[in-house]
Amino acid sequence: AAEGAYHCDSIPAAMLAVKRAFEGRSSAAEEPPPKPTTTRGGLQVRFTAKLTEALELVSRSPRGLLAAATIGGSVTFVDGSDLSLLGATEELHEDPPNAVAWAAGGETLLLAGEDGIARVVSVASRSVVRSHAVREEPEAGKRPRCHPVSRLAVLGDGAFEFSASFVAAAGRVAHCYRLSDGTLEHVCELTSPVHALCAAPRGEPLHWAYALAVKGCVRLVSRAGATVHELQIGSVVRSLASSGQWLAAAEYDGTLKLWGLSPVTSPLTLRGYCGTDGKDVQWSADGGGLAASGSQAVVFDFTGAQPPHPYRSQPWRPAAGKPDSVPRVCIGHRAAAVAWAGGEVAPPPTDEWPPDPATPPARLATVDPQGLVRVWQPRSLPLRKGGQGNPTQPQLMKPQLYTFVRQDATHPSGEAAEPCALLWLAEDTVAVGYASGEIVAFQVT
């Protein structure tokens, strides 16, 4: 061999092992990930769709149309009733969108671009009809700083797109545009980046139009762009969701902060003690449940049921519309995403609360990082009493109620498959978008 040549076999075995460990490699051949296994089964494949590119995300319109954004920067439209492919746009950008949102009528799709552009796409023509640069005002003598558009929210007055606007956030600025003609309605300039954004529920007569989270606070902003409330918060918010009566902010450490909105109240703090990550937080359609993702999905009940628990720290009285501080934990399974059956939040009038006992139980779907989808009924029996802590000191225990999976299924191949979307297509159909380019709809019985 030539002098000075580098030979791997000249390195002592111990040094080679250290080198591989440092590089995150094992000296043995890497084993494939274990196959996911179901607990109950019962979910049957109803429809499937296969795209030609890897999927980044999937979103469902109010009218049931799906927009599947691919890693190549195009969007394929899919019929939500049978997952038939309806056609695709051209490549809109070299990168996939960071977020998508539908206008209320379902005829317009909004895309949040990595290049700092918010694009308005016509479903009919499958093309971009307007592009908006969401940028901060440049400092004197400097070019404007370009940040990715990270979040979108549609503001509307019902099902008519001509009366709707949308908000796009990028870096330390949020722009509000009119959907009908692209007019810039207002600009919110902020002192720190926007971490989360959500619109007020449609049809709710609220004094604010959207909420955005920045360092140290959550701002409630009016349709005219004025800050009507500034809600103080100590940690970084990862996601926001509103039921109309309540605004929930999920922090990175899993804590949920909750403000009443009619009128605005001091925050309540809810903790699941089960590894909540704050990435995904959603209200049920009737406003009676709040679910969050994490090591195990957690649900907080607002129906007033509040079953007895020996570890409750103080006497309680059931109150419809108020949160039960004892979390309902979807026991034993990781939840990368959560989704309630029933669509968007539409809280019933107070004279119809609580819901009719004959109403079908609220279903919650979760999907884990291996693509295993599960269906739960966390607001129904059975619920097992438990908690975190030392049972010999019940006064210090953190009470929990455990709910159990009703039905589940793996990817049709039986192998692990990374999910990128979880959504309900109908009351009895839940779908998972897989990064491999497939959308699979499962029948729920």
Q: What is shown here, in short?
A:
A 6-stranded mixed β-sheet has the order 22-23-24-25-30-29, with no helix packed on it. Helix content is 2%, strand content 41%. The chain contains 1 helix and 34 strands.
Helix and strand topology:
Blueprint: H1 13-22, E1 44-50, E2 55-60, E3 65-70, E4 75-79, E5 85-88, E6 99-102, E7 108-112, E8 117-122, E9 127-133, E10 149-155, E11 165-170, E12 173-178, E13 184-189, E14 196-199, E15 210-214, E16 217-221, E17 227-232, E18 237-242, E19 246-251, E20 256-260, E21 268-270, E22 276-283, E23 289-294, E24 298-301, E25 328-330, E26 337-340, E27 364-367, E28 373-376, E29 384-388, E30 398-403, E31 407-409, E32 419-426, E33 429-434, E34 438-443
Parallel strand pairs: 25-30
Antiparallel strand pairs: 1-34, 2-3, 3-4, 4-5, 6-7, 7-8, 8-9, 10-11, 11-12, 12-13, 14-15, 15-16, 16-17, 18-19, 19-20, 20-21, 22-23, 23-24, 24-25, 26-27, 27-28, 28-31, 29-30, 32-33, 33-34
Protein described:
This protein is mostly beta strands and 445 residues long. The protein is 2% helix and 41% strand. It is built from 1 helix and 34 strands. It has one helix spanning 13-22, and strands at 44-50, 55-60, 65-70, 75-79, 85-88, 99-102, 108-112, 117-122, 127-133, 149-155, 165-170, 173-178, 184-189, 196-199, 210-214, 217-221, 227-232, 237-242, 246-251, 256-260, 268-270, 276-283, 289-294, 298-301, 328-330, 337-340, 364-367, 373-376, 384-388, 398-403, 407-409, 419-426, 429-434, 438-443. The strands form 8 sheets. It has a 6-stranded mixed β-sheet, with no helix packed on it. The chain has a 4-stranded antiparallel β-sheet with strand order 1-34-33-32, with no helix packed on it. A hairpin with a 3-residue loop joins strand 23 and strand 24. The radius of gyration is 24 Å and the shape is globular. The relative contact order is 0.12.
